[in-house]
């Protein structure tokens, strides 16, 4: 009898809870349907308009160029010379990972943007801007935009390096420098930049090498063979670099080497 009374006493709250759960489920379903997330789908469908295929190919080509943008930046700009010289400078001072790689790459990128700014402006005015305005075609825009970049690389490349890739390609001897294809100009430019960077690095190494030799000789004459010469020479090399305003001289030499 008591059990029946307890069940009748709990019947009201149980029914109320069940009704509330059903109402909350209905409200949640309606809210989810009202706030449905957008669906993104990719597919291949037949089309009667040839321009649809052209637009799709342009998008794929643009994505490919964006993927290769870092490599293009490295191969066709002043980034190679600057990054190599800064890396050699860190080794010459002997500070191991100071400045860190991220800082060296950032400084190299900033100097690259500074040096290549006039070339980029010429490429924009000659190729990209007329193409955006609809004055020229895509092929004409590419050819016009590449002319300032080619002129920059031709000023820095050595004839010997350029002739090497012309010979390796098996093509006929070009009549003039403008007839050299860009696919041969880029590797020749890269080799020339590496050679120039190593020449600058050799000059940078000399004063720090002299300090290492002097410190090693002094330690040997004092009989302090257990003391690493690198540890003693490091403060003197840093002091020399600060006194001569090394960063100013290095940046000035790198920028002026492209003029």
Care to describe what's here?
With 259 residues, the protein is mainly alpha-helical. Helix content is 78%, strand content 0%. The termini are far apart. Residues 2-7 and 30-37 have low confidence and may be disordered.
Entry keywords:
single chain, 259 residues, mainly alpha
- State mean pLDDT (0 to 100 scale): 74
Strand share of the residues? Answer: under 5%
Report the sheet with the most strands, covering strand number, pairing sense and barrel closure. Answer: none
| Total count of helical runs of at least 4 residues | 10
Q: SS-based structural class?
A: mainly alpha
From the spread of the alpha carbons, the general shape counts as elongated
Order of helices and strands: HHHHHHHHHH
* Parts with pLDDT < 50 across at least 5 consecutive residues: 2-7, 30-37
Bin the helical content: over 70%
Termini gap: 105 Å
Counting DSSP E segments of at least 2 residues, the number of strands comes to 0
Alpha carbon gyration radius:
34 Å
Topology:
Layout: H1 2-34, H2 50-67, H3 69-76, H4 79-93, H5 101-132, H6 138-156, H7 159-169, H8 182-221, H9 229-243, H10 246-256
Helix pairs in contact: 4-5, 4-8, 5-6, 6-8, 7-8, 8-9
In short:
The protein is mainly α and 259 residues long.
